[in-house]
Design a protein that fits this description.
Length: 93
């Protein structure tokens, strides 16, 4: 349902970015809530924007104020614009 691999979900769990709602003791299957599915989508969106997992961590766990989040995202946009060749920046509007 999330569109990410089991390996990716395990990695997010291992680094503490996204812990499953529960883990079945016998099978080891990880279960996620609908809210966590939205978090997975946010993670994927942030990755598409070029944010590292560490940069997105405070954005996901709510330990950052709106102005701080905006500053983080604007810095990333500026960095990305610096990487784009002139004339090809219409996608970064």
């Amino acid at each position: 349902m999330s569109g990410v691999t089991v390996k990716t979900l395990r990695h997010y769990d291992e680094i503490g970015l996204l812990k499953p709602a529960r883990v079945h003791e016998e099978s080891g299957y990880r279960y996620y809530t609908a809210e966590q599915l939205l978090s997975i989508r946010r993670i994927e969106g942030f990755k598409q924007q070029g944010l590292t997992l560490e940069l997105m961590r405070p954005l996901l766990n709510g330990r950052i104020s709106w102005p701080e989040a905006e500053t983080t995202l604007l810095k990333k946009r500026k960095e990305l614009r610096g990487r784009v060749r002139p004339g090809n920046d219409r996608y970064l509007a």
